[in-house]
Amino acid sequence: MAPLLLVLIFLAAALADAFNNNHGASQHRGHQAMSSAKKQKLDDGDASQSLQEIRAGFIGCGTIASAIATSLAAPAHAAPLSQKGLSLSSISVTRRSESKSGKLKADFPEVVTVYESPEEVVRNSDLVFLCVLPQHVDSVLEGVRDAWRTKDHTLVSLVSTSKVDDLIQKTGLPSNRVYKMICLPAIAKREGCALLQPAPSPTPTNGNKPSVGDINVRAMLDALGGCVECANDDIMNKMMVTTSMMGPMYGIMRNNREWLVKQGVSPEDASYFVGRSYLSMVQDAERGCRDPARFDDLIEEQTPGGLNEQALGNLDKQGMFGAYNDAMAAVLARLQGKSDGSLPSDPQN
Hints:
Elements: H1 2-50, E1 52-59, H2 63-73, H3 78-83, E2 86-94, H4 98-107, E3 112-115, H5 118-123, E4 127-130, H6 137-143, E5 154-157, H7 164-171, E6 178-182, E7 194-198, H8 217-223, E8 227-229, H9 233-243, H10 246-262, H11 267-286, H12 294-300, H13 307-317, H14 320-335
Helix pairs in contact: 9-14, 10-11
């Protein structure tokens, strides 16, 4: 019995030793895994801390202001902003227009606050969007004159007639913190392309550490769909003409729909087919549109002697492109203050 007892004791000791070794290794692996997870969490935390927070404010809450605010607040847009080193912290909006400010608050209650006055918006934001009618700009800026923090605030004007130099003078903000911007409502869905005009000679930063208001506006707009930077008022005005072609494009689509209806197509089918067809055409044109030859290539792809080539030629013969050029020149003249944008009357009428 004694030898058997000794064997059992020896086996028990060996099993215990094996268990302790395995347990220690397991604990070590566990500590390694926990350390890795903790490190990853800390790394993620560091990454989030390195993002520049956006405290956006909107003076005026019309269609464009609402679209920009919606794009900034949309959860699906957080990742593109993060890739540009940005993160939304809050949105402050004036109550007017109440239907739109109320909808923003309802859609994004955790980040949107509605204020009664422009001054409250300015005091509770760092990146301020000016979205009022041209005739109200001076009175609004006068009312918030004492609310600006010159070291923190950045101003972006969506007023089509505003000039960057005038805004700098009226606000007292450094020139590298004042911009003019133009965009279409599609920015709400990260579609379209914004125009951005900085000051002609921005105030140098002198290598100083960025402050809370040093938002990279260009990067933000790139994250929200795209941006083209315009060097001066002349280029900005000419680029703005393209945005005025939205109405004519919708007019062409409506005309196409009405023509189909007159041919016996149901209004519902006509509207759906026209909308989807034009969408596919624009999407095709958008692919590779940084190549200046993209649109020429698409025209060259039309089948020789085919319906598309013939329709294009017929419209060209009837002066469609000349009419477009005249309409665009008239818009530019209005933007430049040279006319009211009307075309001259036909001398034969």
